[in-house]
Each structure stands twice: as structure tokens, then as C-alpha cells.
Amino acid sequence: MMRTRPLKVALLGCGVVGSEVARIMTTHADDLAARIGAPVELAGVAVRRPDKVRGGVPAELITTDATALVKRGDIDVVVEVIGGIEPARTLITTAFEHGASVVSANKALLAQDGAALYAAAEQHGQDLYYEAAVAGAIPLIRPLRESLAGDKINRVMGIVNGTTNFILDKMDTSGAGYSEALDEATALGYAEADPTADVEGFDAAAKAAILAGIAFHTRVKLDDVYREGMTEVTAADFASAKQMGCTIKLLAICERAADGGSVTARVHPAMIPLSHPLASVREAYNAVFVEAEAAGRLMFYGPGAGGSPTASAVLGDLVAVCRNRLNEATGPGESAYTRLPVSPMGEVVTRYHISLDVADKPGVLAQVATVFAEHGVSIDTVRQQGKDGEASLVVVTHRAPDAALSGTVEALRKLDTVRGVASIMRVEGE
Amino acid sequence: MMRTRPLKVALLGCGVVGSEVARIMTTHADDLAARIGAPVELAGVAVRRPDKVRGGVPAELITTDATALVKRGDIDVVVEVIGGIEPARTLITTAFEHGASVVSANKALLAQDGAALYAAAEQHGQDLYYEAAVAGAIPLIRPLRESLAGDKINRVMGIVNGTTNFILDKMDTSGAGYSEALDEATALGYAEADPTADVEGFDAAAKAAILAGIAFHTRVKLDDVYREGMTEVTAADFASAKQMGCTIKLLAICERAADGGSVTARVHPAMIPLSHPLASVREAYNAVFVEAEAAGRLMFYGPGAGGSPTASAVLGDLVAVCRNRLNEATGPGESAYTRLPVSPMGEVVTRYHISLDVADKPGVLAQVATVFAEHGVSIDTVRQQGKDGEASLVVVTHRAPDAALSGTVEALRKLDTVRGVASIMRVEGE
């Protein structure tokens, strides 16, 4: 039987995502009510600039005073789609203090202050849900937190930023350079005017921190995540990747160490084999590959951003939180019981693809090979190409700790016969 | 703070899946306890043949009296991995009556009697979870029921049977015929001695019924699902598919009609373009493609069967059900509020690829084209090949109701100039 008093929702932010949340709450009100077991009502919408509110939201619901809205006391669920650290953080904790649960799409805040927010939610007996914070509409947080709750996840490897995937896909398919591909992404609305957060990997790093924490039941902060952007990936790198039967993706990789005693989280461009399911993720799509002890290899694929897909994730959480509320219960809170330390990048085991410009004379290969051996790095393949007194050496290593690999590169730079290191790229996905 | 009284689990069935559930419950007891908030204890294991129980289960837990086990009164959760209709159905309802929730992997039973089981669970205030019933370890039921609860799903299209995907993949890559590929699947353990349930599409049809019900919030019974097996797919069909840039998959397709007033569910082999994400699902893997109004196009990929993957799904449900129990709440029950009727196959809108053996004489194409026109079926492409007085016509239609398409084929069979219909295959995924 359906309860007749509606659950009241406060919406913080009414941009691309927020306006879509408001629209669906209105157009699909009957469906939402049936799925929740009670009607839901949009009780207020807090915005910075009321003149910019998009169509469909009744004027009487609009306010510029977000704090007063979350303090009203009759709000059941606060939906936070403002983004950024403040005022979002204060508004969310204020919401908990005033008896509301929270649905957030705020990856930056969750990556930085997830533990404190979880603690505040638990203290006040409220829910904190954030499916939309990672990979947009792709159901990922809930499968990791709940469907795989009886399994042991060993690795999460994903394409979690649509902008950079669009740029890399464009470079791969058209042979364009980075700048040209970025211009196209900007023109099509896939990249923002200032693309730093995307192309330097900050956005992906926040998502990696969130995913690693959930996957390994431990705390991983944004600062724990090693981060390299993709602005230095060149058309030549793509040509090298093709020769190896690979493509290049900006990957977020969260791994449990082989001995199980620590975890790592990192974001960087990497070559992956064309046969890997992530290699065929095109345009601005996202996909996350999960390896679990019992479940095996899983992949989740879909649009990683955009107003409608993100709104879908927000509304799925809204339904869950409202159902919990009717049940007078809360969903799973933070699970950080393993308290596994996060190891630095140097301890990550990976492979390098290294292109060297070298003098074209006898003995160079022997010199180079000696440097690898001295650092304990085993070579998988070497390809040598010479022309006009100059030559290039392309070396692909076997798996070794990143510290040994980067140490090798530093030592190679000091060799007289090495004129330059043309490119270094990690190789993943095998 | 952790509760110290353990939650008691009764396991019904201890074959490939059950023994793996028992093993993980023992080896990962601490992880499960931390995730649930209380320890879980295997309280009894009911089997038909105690001499066949696999390693690791203490002898004192084994019983042949499943009914007495579920009636004990101290059982919190019954895990049913027996399969089939009886005695599973009676044991599950008995479990509800005696205060236990149920986790089941039983697709046949859920497809046939899901509504009655849901009603029994609700009547007794218990949970019924069954992630493992569809697509093994791939988190699918929970994302559809919960993550997409705020969205409107319009289509679910999936490869949900690993045996048939292995056979079709083998035919595609090696050019083998059906019998040869089936023999290989049997030798490798991918097909059972009697492969009927898989190759005739019964297994996929049960999953389609479950998926359609969840996706569209309505009741879809096994009998509502149109079903065609894949035993008649030939090497020639694969050759035709290749010429169209397609491959052939056995698909389970659940669709909402364009007017929203009804739904359909069907299982049959179909050509899909190589560019479609489902086309690259190889070997015995499963994948389900979901199209939702706001979320867009999502795909879930992973192993669809096997002891460990299925056990992973069962244990994820076990954790959720145990958490609900500690919260004194239940998860989402049946959601069938839309009460949408299920339309017959004739009303499904699809495309046909038809190969005809025809007399090699003038006017044949005109005759054939007239038959299509009379049935209101528009032709997309025709390819004509002739040799030695015989010829073949390959026609690919535009989209039309299945009844009009099959009516066209019947009429074509009656033409004097048509010597035979060599193959008919639906074309999907565009």
C-alpha cells in the first residue's frame, strides 16, 4: 500500500544534470512513486543565479539560499549536483545534521573527504549515495559495493573520463595530433574551455580514489593516486602502439598487490592490446573492467557523462534512498575494514614501451641492454631502425616494479650513445 | 559494532555452485563478517547423495532431509542451488513460512513461478534475491532493479547463454558447421551431454522472461517468450552474415513497444553488425546490452556460468540479505505495477535476411518483389546470383512486423519460380 505523504527532495544545483533530474522527477512522477512506494516531491531548488534556471522548474521552488533549504527540517533527501569542495561539503554535512539523506554526484569531494562524509552520515543515521560520481550512468558503485560484496576484487581498470577517451580515439582513428584532436573535442562540446581537469588526469584520479576505496574496502585518498595526464601522447606513440597490436587509453588502474598486503591506484596513458575489451571503447564512452577472484573478468560499459545519463544515476540512488527511508533503514555505509596501505607508484608492477634515439654505431644495443640488466629489468623485445647515422631503438620490457623501470630510463638518458628518450609508455592489460 | 550471534545459512544443493559457495563462506569468513556486520555460519547442507559431496564441507553439516533443514526455525537464509521446479519450489516457500529469506540461482523456477514466490516472500516478510539466475556473475538484476530504478528501460538485448555463444563463435571463427562446433563444446565441457535446454533456447528464454519482468516492471512468464533455437544455423548463414558485415548470435531481446503500451520478449538467432558491442562477445562469455531513456546505451559483460562466477553472485546476494536482516528490513520486492501486456511475436518489429533458391529466368525478381509489396514489407537490398539455370536471391528487408515478414516468406514458398527458401534470419542491433 502506498504512503500518501510525499518524500521531500531538495535539489542543490540546477545546471545540466540538476535540470534533468528535476525534469524526470516531474515527467516520471508516477513511475518513481510506484517504485519507491510513496510519491516524491521536489521541495526546493537552490541555485546561484536564479535567472539561469532551465525550463520546467516552478519559480516558487527556486531559492539562492541553499543553507536555509537544507536546514528546513522537512527535507528527506538532498540531491547535491553543485560539484567542487565548498559549499557542497558544508551543505551535505548540514543536511545530515538536519535529518536528510544525501545523493551526490560530486567525485572531487568524495575523493577528498569521503571518509568524513561517511562518518557524518553514519553519526546522524543517514544515507550517502553517489553512483553518479563515477562513470555517469554506468551502474558501477552499486555492483562493486553490493553485487560483488561476497567476492574479492583484485583489479579495477577503467576508462573513466569521456573527454580524454574522445581525444585519444580521434588520434587513433584519424592520425591527428593531440592539439588537433583537443580542438575537435572542444568544438563538439566534449572538452571544456579549460580542459586541465580532464587531460591532466585529475578527474580520473578522483574516480580512481573512489573506486579503489570501494573495491578493496579501504581508504584511498586523492593524494594516494599517482597521476599522469595524456597531453604528451603523440601520433608517433599511436604508430608505435599499432606496431605492437595495441592502442592507447588513459586508464585508471586500482590493484591489490600480489601479496595482498597493500593496494595501488594510478592514472596514466597506457598501451593496451586491441584484443582487450577496453580497447574497443570508442568516442566519449566509459568502461570499467573488474577482475574478481570468484566472478572472473567483468566489464561495465556506457556513457560516462552528460546530463541525462548522470541524472539516471542520481535518480536510481534517489529511489534507493527513499526506499531505505520508508523502511526506516540505511544502505551500506563505508566499508574500510581492511585498512590496507596504499603503496607508491614505484612499487607498481608494470611494463614499459621505450623509444630511444641513439647513435647508429656498433655496441649501442649492448650498452643499452646492460643498463636494463643492471636495474633488474628484463627485456621482452627490441626493434632497431637505422638511417643516416641516426637510429632508434624500441624496447618493450617484461613486468618489473615502476621504480626499476623509471630508474632504467634515467640511466639510459645519461649514456653518451643515447641522444634522447623519444617516448615512454606503460603497457597494460595482459 | 559487530553482532556476535552468527547468521545461519542453510545450503540446498552442493554441486559445482554449492560447493564453491560453501568453500568461499569458509575461506572468506572474516571478509563476509566485516561486510555484513555479523558472522555468517553454514548451518546445514542438504544433498541428494551424501557420498558425492565435494571437499571442505564438514560431514556433520550434511543431510539428505532438505525439508527438515529449512523447517528448523533458526535458519536466517536459505541458499537454493538445486535448480529445476520441484523440490526447489516447495523448499523455498517452506523456508519463507519458517522465517528464512532465500537466495536462489534457479532461473527455470523464477521464470515459471516468480510471481508466486515473490508473493510468498512478501507475505512472510522475507527477501527473495536471485542475481545468479541470469548471466552468472555479471551484476545485472541489481543494476536493473536498483541502479536504473529512476530511469525508463526501453530494450534489453543480451547473449545470456554461454554454451550457444561458444558454439556460434566457433562456427564464426573456424567455419565449422553446427554439429562439429557442438562436439567441440561438449568435449571442452561447455555443453552438456543433452544440450537441448541450451541449443533450443529454453535456458535463454527463462532468462528473457526474468529480465523483461524486471526491466519493464511487469509480469512476463516463460510461455510469453517467443523461442527459436540455433540448431539450424549453418556455415552458409555465417557466410551471408559476413557479406553484410555481421555475425550471428543467439539473442534474448526484451522490448517495450514504440507506443509504450505493451512489451515483447523473444529468443532467436539473429545477425548483428560487427560494430555492435555484442558482436565482439567471444567464447562462452555473456553480455547484456541495455537501452534506457536517460542512461542511454549500457553493456554488462562477464562469465555467464561456472561454479565460481555463479557462487560470486550468490554470495553478493547473501551479503545483501544478511544486511537487510540485521536492519530488520527487506530489499525491493516484485515491481509489476505497469501490468503491461506481452504482445505475440507477430507484432515484434524486426528485419529479415532471406535467401531464396529461384529459377534463373527473367521476371523472377519482379514476382518476388511483388510478394513483398503485397505484404507491406519494404526491401532494403537484393543480391542476385545465377549459375547453370539456377539462381539465388538474397533479400534484406527494412523493419516490419514479424507477422508481415513471415507471411511474406509463406507466400514466397508458393511461387512456382521459388524452388526453396534456403535460410531466414532476423537482423538486429541497428
From TrEMBL, chains A, B:
Q: Which SUPFAM superfamilies match?
A: ACT-like (SSF55021), Glyceraldehyde-3-phosphate dehydrogenase-like, C-terminal domain (SSF55347), NAD(P)-binding Rossmann-fold domains (SSF51735)
Catalytic activity reads: L-homoserine + NAD(+) = L-aspartate 4-semialdehyde + NADH + H(+); L-homoserine + NADP(+) = L-aspartate 4-semialdehyde + NADPH + H(+)
Signal peptide position in this chain?
none
Question: Which EC number applies?
Answer: 1.1.1.3
Q: Which residues form a coiled coil?
A: none
Q: Which UniProt keywords apply?
A: Amino-acid biosynthesis, Methionine biosynthesis, NADP, Oxidoreductase, Sodium, Threonine biosynthesis
One GO molecular function term of this record is:
homoserine dehydrogenase activity
Write out the pathway annotation from the protein's UniProt entry.
Amino-acid biosynthesis; L-methionine biosynthesis via de novo pathway; L-homoserine from L-aspartate: step 3/3; Amino-acid biosynthesis; L-threonine biosynthesis; L-threonine from L-aspartate: step 3/5
Gene3D superfamilies, per database record: 3.30.70.260, Dihydrodipicolinate Reductase, domain 2, NAD(P)-binding Rossmann-like Domain
Concerning InterPro entries, the annotation shows: ACT-like_dom_sf (IPR045865), ACT_dom (IPR002912), Asp/hSer_DH_NAD-bd (IPR005106), HDH (IPR016204), HDH_cat (IPR001342), HDH_CS (IPR019811), NAD(P)-bd_dom_sf (IPR036291)
Which intervals hold domain ACT?
353-426
Q: Which cofactor does it need?
A: a metal cation
- CDD domains (alphabetical): ACT_HSDH-Hom (cd04881)
**What the protein does?**
Catalyzes the conversion of L-aspartate-beta-semialdehyde (L-Asa) to L-homoserine (L-Hse), the third step in the biosynthesis of threonine and methionine from aspartate.
Homology family: Belongs to the homoserine dehydrogenase family.
Q: What is this protein called?
A: Homoserine dehydrogenase
The taxonomic lineage of its organism, from the top, reads: Bacteria, Bacillati, Actinomycetota, Actinomycetes, Kitasatosporales
